[in-house]
Amino acid sequence: MASPPLPVAYQAWTSLAVPDWLNKGDNTWQMVSATLVGIQSMPGLVILYGSIVKKKWAVNSAFMALYAFAAVIICWVTWAYKMSFGEQLLPFWGKAGPALGQKFLINQAGLPATAHYYHDGRVETGEATPFYPMATMVWFQCVFAAISVVILAGSVLARMSFKAWMMFVPLWLTFSYTIGAFSLWGGGFLFQWGVMDYSGGYVIHLSSGIAGFTAAYWVGPRSKKDRERFPPNNVLLTLAGAGLLWLGWAGFNGGDPYSANTDSSMAVLNTNICAATSLLVWTWLDVIYFKKPSVIGAVQGMITGLVCITPGAGLVQGWAAIIMGVLSGSVPWYTMMVLGKKFTIFQKVDDTLAVFHTHAVAGLLGGILTGLFAEPQLSSLFLPVTNSRGGVYGGSGGIQILKQIVGALFIIGWNIVATSIICIVVGFCVPLRMTEEELLIGDDAVHGEEAYALWGDGEKLSLYKDDTTRQGVLASSGATQVV
């Protein structure tokens, strides 16, 4: 019996730009998802970073995020995309190469290493070939890579040299991010083994959280005054950045089935359920233990909820998303508010925005909970390994939890080693840390710019009356120095 004709919009060769494999709905959703994820970084985290830090670091913090976003794009299309999603070079790494030519970009998207085989060599699941062009896939994956580096920046704000950051970004993207992306998503050994990471709980959040904490160790702490007092310069703008982050997560998790399908819808709903639950739990804990609800605390709870659901967004049911939200609002809260004040390592390593707790802890928690709650039918809609399931559903579910732990240990170990080597190499070329004069003055010394002109109409207030240097310290022209 002949198949019914396709609607005109989907018929091949209605124009040269509409090949027979193109699904306009999928392509539209994937481009929208990529845009939403991009907005999370720029302007989302640019705004959040620029407003959640002390006034004198607003420009520097926002600029670090902005620079990383731009730098990753160029590195990604020049060599890093194929290292993450191209042909296999090693079990954990793809072959480097450009993604710039039209012959590559206008062909149907395909991830060549993602075919999955049974032990006897028979194909279990074919290569992933979404119904849109490679250009869409390259851009969608690019914004994920970019936000990973931007998240990492949150650990080293207010003291890392900008020149060192300019070197660090392409090196970490190349030697850390691409490893996790290929291993878990692009067809590498963890993908083949069946480790679950729906949308980046490990590839993005655990990776950037561990790498950020490691980089913070090598860069050293902020100045003593900044560590003692570091109030947000604009709480309302912090909320604006957080809002862009939250709603942008619809693309973050909703775009990872590579299609506008039922699993995509499930992922978006679960994302919002978990984030809302986590925010409420974090706020309740602040009220119970500190007697005051904190807006910044609520933002932290929102972020941990979004991070925790990410590895299982399209794999778990709604009730599991609520449980994950309760745990993501309480476990990272405990590690940050209680353990963070008891353990020496958290006192020694100055993680400016607590990225270790909000991303590494929450990402690890989400990955393990995904291994516990992944529902078999939902898993079959997305995962290449047939009969995948979480621990609560019996069968091979117990093994899945072990797989999740092993996958996490690989990401943790690789990022500690790779990030340390990168910091050491960068440190040989340029200082990792700003000078003491720059640490004292902030944005005006580092960039010659300030976020707020609070003295007259665009005028700036000098720290010294004669507006000259004093004892080798640059005179401040920033009102933020008068504290």
Automatic annotation (TrEMBL):
Keyword 4Fe-4S found: no
Primary location: membrane
GO CC terms of this entry: plasma membrane
Compartments (UniProt record): Cell membrane
Domain Ammonium transporter AmtB-like: residue ranges: 29-452
Transmembrane helix keyword on record: yes
PROSITE patterns reported in the protein's UniProt record: AMMONIUM_TRANSP (PS01219)
Example of a GO MF term: ammonium channel activity
Membrane topology summary: Multi-pass membrane protein
Keyword entries, A-Z: Ammonia transport, Cell membrane, Glycoprotein, Membrane, Transmembrane, Transmembrane helix, Transport
UniProt GO BP: response to symbiotic fungus
Pfam families tied to this protein: Ammonium_transp (PF00909)
SUPFAM superfamilies: Ammonium transporter (SSF111352)
Transmembrane regions: 29-50, 62-81, 138-158, 165-190, 202-220, 232-252, 264-283, 295-313, 319-340, 352-374, 405-430
Entry's family note: Belongs to the ammonia transporter channel (TC 1.A.11.2) family.
Family annotation (PANTHER family): AMMONIUM TRANSPORTER MEP2
NCBIfam families found in the cross-reference section: amt
Name of the protein described by the UniProt record: Ammonium transporter
Organism in which the protein naturally occurs: Pisum sativum
